[in-house]
Design a protein that fits this description.
mainly alpha, 2 domains, 6 helices, 69% helix
Length: 99
């Protein structure tokens, strides 16, 4: 995703990990319909491609967010035992394979 889309991706993540839809009594489809309506209002004059790109970014944030395993959260990045990014990535990929 482009750097400029990070904020809109966070909207999708927010909608997934918070109890927003549950407290609003809305299904995921209803929430996404509301998001699409808002995006069309805000970005509509810029064209369908812009609306669709933003909607896709929200949906990807919602659908692709993962929970980090506790061992990743507990890693001490400045520890002599830390071997770099692979120490962070390997447990995440392992958790995805188990899901």
């Amino acid at each position: 995703l482009a750097v400029r889309m990070q904020g809109i991706v966070l909207l999708g993540i927010f909608l997934k990990v918070t109890p927003f839809s549950e407290q609003a009594g809305m299904s995921d489809d209803e929430v996404m319909a509301g998001v699409e309506k808002a995006l069309r209002k805000y970005f509509g004059r810029r064209g369908e491609a812009v609306v669709q790109a933003n909607l896709d970014a929200v949906k990807r944030g919602h659908d692709e967010v993962i929970e980090l395993p506790a061992e990743v959260i507990a890693l001490q990045v400045n520890s002599p035992k830390f071997n770099g990014a692979s120490d962070l990535i390997t447990p995440v990929f392992a958790a995805q394979q188990e899901a």
